[in-house]
Amino acid sequence: MKFSEHEKLIEIGRGLASETPEDWIRIEAYASMMTEVSTFSVEVFKEGGGHESISIPFPVSMAFRELREGMDTAEHGTWFSAQYYLERPGMFKVEYDYDSEPPFPYTLDPERYGNDYLNYPRSPENIPKWLFGKFDECKRRERELLENSDQDD
After folding, report:
1. Which of 126, 132, 91 is nearest to 110 (CA)?
2. For the chain, how many structural domains are there in total?
3. CATH of the domain at 15
4. Mode of pairing for the β-strands spanning 81-87 and 51-54
């Protein structure tokens, strides 16, 4: 089956709408993803001005993962973060960030960034500078491990 970004975005919207209170008027979902780790937040805005955070439904998180996978290209890799906006009666908009470090609420080991790059490589001119920094940190750690193992012999 051929990947369709539009169909996957509709699936995400339907999944979000089915798990929110009936009085929703807008839903904003944020995804930060890499191969081995992901975080999500979902805000539901209600009629009358209130809003609440909800947990992302598991099928929606899987749809985001499939979306990220399906959007991978040899030149640009894939996105690190996405913002999905859904408004009644079913209008949606999405923004992808291919260049900024994903805003995880915790520090990740640089190797996770390297593993993500191995799964979603991109041409050198499309590798963000911050990602090169993660690669350099991996190399530095590898050198330290080799030096320490040589001292142990």
Report:
1. 132
2. 1
3. 3.30.500.20
4. unpaired
